[in-house]
Amino acid sequence: MRRISDPLFIPGSSLSPEEIHARALPLIGTPGQTYAEHRCVPVRIADEAGVRFDPDFAGRPAVLIAMRDQRGALTAVHGRYLHSTHCQNKMLTVGTEGGAVVLLDGWRTEPLILVEGLFDALSLAVCGWASVATIGRSISRLAEMTFGRVVWAAFDAGRSGETNVSTLRDRLPHALIQRLPPPPRCKDWNTALIKRGPQVVARWLQTQIAGE
Known about the structure:
- The chain is of the alpha/beta class.
- It folds into two domains: 17-95, DNA primase DNAg catalytic core, N-terminal domain (Alpha-Beta Complex); 101-210, Dna Topoisomerase Vi A Subunit, Chain: A, domain 2.
- It is built from eight helices and ten strands.
- A five-stranded antiparallel sheet has the order 1-2-3-4-5, sandwiched between helices.
- A hairpin with a 2-residue loop joins strand 2 (52-57) and strand 3 (60-68).
- The longest helix has 13 residues, at 159-171.
């Protein structure tokens, strides 16, 4: 979670995050549905989570999700492009910092699980678990929201994930930060869902969190 200077408007236009979100299409029946299902996320779950589709998100088709603060106000729109070359960004976020992607009422649900990306959060939702995706950005009032709570840091496997866990511990001294890695030989939660399936991933989560 770091400070990133995202554009306030979609590049090449004056569209605000609210306008971008309002014009986006329902996911069902679009190429965004195909993309989500290719990543083993059923369209019903993605649609209920608020994922939408924009055929021209700064020039390319993308699935979109609103980022919101703890009061539910929209702060930014995050897009994951359906296609990208080696010289193109895979993602674009438009708006101000402070929000997060919240699935299944992730702020209020125990345990509180933080993940990195949209499809990490969607993958956990497929397995029946709520989470909050940081999208690699700072979240306003996070220290207040986590005071005295156990926070499960379900970040990517490898050095980058461990660095993010260490940073989280420094920023949340009054929370108990527990590491929650994806299953072995899986770099992130969507990879785990694709390789292992929802039942195996759900059992892994239960075992790691409840110690069962």
